[in-house]
Amino acid sequence: MKTRTTTGLFVVGLLALAACDESPTDTDALDQSINFDAAMVSADATIEDVQALRDAHLGGFFMNGRSGTRSVTFYDASDVEQAAYDEMTTAKIQMVMEMTRELEREGWSASATRSREMTVTGLEGVETTRTVNGSGSEAMTRSRHTDTQGLRTYEMTGTRTIENVVHEVPRDGAYPQSGTITRNMSITITTEGGTETRTREVVITFNGTQYPEMTVDGEMYEVDLEARDGQRPFRGGGHHGGR
Description:
This protein is mainly beta and 243 residues long. It has one domain (9-225, 232-237).
């Protein structure tokens, strides 16, 4: 099957940010804040992406705390639609999900609407791995980020591209072995001095562990795929600056 690949831009409006001058120190601090906030949003979405992959044979994760819709279609090796998942004959699963929920983690809260289209392959017979490709979009309102640098409030929209994410047959302790999720972000910042646009590229690279690597314009973070709701989704809890 030919998998549709999309590229896209996050458009982020920074609604509340203390005015700053143009000194190098203030510019560096603003860049670090933007990196950290982009990492927070991306890591939270990645945890949901992996959960959906793990539960693909169940039709994606259950809608706990979410409102929205989801659909799942199963196909055999001849691309014939099946009425239900069969652990031996199902070869491919297509999932479409759209949901809205209130998000809250340490130092961050938002109202989020996220959609996903995911195709999972490699399922026929006694499978050892499964591969997912797909795309998604999201919109954030009242995305509030608080830390020692102060309060920053955003409105966000954007897309993601999921490419060749390989996962062992779901079991406890199994994490995606390889593949990437890429986001390209355009960030519009409004201060008392006016508006400007910054760009960010966020790339999550899976490595078979609980802690895939994530870069935000080259700045390294480690996502914690087992972070519970309410916790920062970084290894060791993370902190401003990502290290």
